[in-house]
Amino acid sequence: MSDPTVSEDALAHSERLRQLILAQIAEAGGAIPFWRFMELALYAPGLGYYSAGAAKFGPAGDFVTAPELGSLFAECIAEAFAPVLQQLRDDPADTGDTHVLEIGGGSGAFAGDALAHLAALGAAPARYAILEPSADLRERQRAHLQQRLPADLFARVQWLDGPMPSDWRGVLFANEVVDALPTPRFVIAEGQVFEEYVTAGDDGGASARGFSRTLQPADALLSSAVRHIEQQRGAPFPDGYRSEVLPQLPYWVQAVSGGLRRGAMLFVDYGYPRREYYRDDRSDGTLRGFFRHQVSSDVFALPGLLDLTASVDFTALAEAGTHAGFDFAGYCNQTSLLLGNRLEQRLAAHEAEAIDEAARYALRQQAKKLTLPGEMGEAFQAIGFARDVDFEHAFLIGDLSYRL
Ligand SMILES: C[S@@+](CC[C@H](N)C(=O)[O-])C[C@H]1O[C@@H](n2cnc3c(N)ncnc32)[C@H](O)[C@@H]1O
Question: Nearest C-alpha to atom 13 of ligand 1 is from which residue?
Answer without folding.
Answer: 104
